[in-house]
Amino acid sequence: MTSSSTPTAADGGAALPQELQTLAEAVARRRNFAIISHPDAGKTTLTEKLLLYGGAIQQAGAVKAKGEQRKVTSDWMELEKQRGISITSTVLQFDYSGSTINLLDTPGHQDFSEDTYRTLAAADNAVMLEDAAKGLEPQTRKLFEVCRMRRIPIFTFINKMDRPGREPLELLDEIERELGLACWPVNWPIGSGDQFRGVIDRRSHELILFARAQRGRQSEERRLSVEEARASGAVESDLLDQALEELELLEGAGAELDLELVRAGELSPVFFGSAMTNFGVRPFLDAFLDLAQQPVARPSSAGVIDPVGPGFSGFVFKLQANMDPRHRDRVAFVRVCSGKFEKDMTVQHARTGRSIRLSRPQKLFGQDREVVDDAYPGDVIGLNNPGVFAIGDTLFLGPRVEYEGIPCFSPEIFAWLRNPNPSAFKSFRKGVNELREEGAVQILYDTDESKRDPILAAVGQLQLEVVQYRLEHEYGVKTRIEPLGFSVARWVVGGWPELEKVGRIFNCKTVRDAWNRPVLLFKNDWNLGQLRDDHPDLELSAVAPVVSGVEPISL
Question: 244 and 333 share a domain?
Answer without folding.
Answer: no
